[in-house]
Amino acid sequence: xxxxxxxxxxxxxxxxxxxxxxxxxxxxxxxxxxxxxxxxxxxxxxxxxxxxxxxxxxxxxxxxxxxxxxxxxxxxxxxxxxxxxxxxxxxxxxxxxxxxxxxxxxxxxxxxxxxxxxxxxxxxxxxxxxxxxxxxxxxxxxxxxxxxxxxxxxxxxxxxxxxxxxxxxxxxxxxxxxxxxxxxxxxxxxxxxxxxxxxxxxxx
Length: 204
Fold this sequence. Notes:
alpha+beta, three-stranded antiparallel beta sheet, 10 strands, about 40% helix, about 25% strand, elongated
């Protein structure tokens, strides 16, 4: 994948145009387009930033994304176990950088790990609650947590994981269970089987 900048003096000073060219629409192209849409939405929400800063951020983001895709493509011909290891390594690096990719029914989106509040399983779907939205994904809870790889995400039942950074309080519930009050008015039931481990994470 190659990234180029071309000056066009026919364009307006506040206009930036990005074109993605490829032989066909591959998974990498789909990922990149999804990333650009997220970037565009983020820039619209921060319209007070200067154009110069926006262009610099876009260049740095696209370069980092290009390096990720190049690394993934370089390993695309390895055996199945090698592909799995390479993908796991890339996913871990992405999570550590503060961004996690999530595949929904019709797109791939990028979420800030710090914004994740609650990850739950409902009707066979992974429901990811963040500070500003809710995302439905087709992924096993255990696999998602492995990709996170962060100690502040703690399992509170067979089907739910919370981010301790967004835990506000705990109260006793029925049959030895507890209720976790989370940011944004969210709640989650802590199964009594997981109460002890949660307390250990809280240093209690």
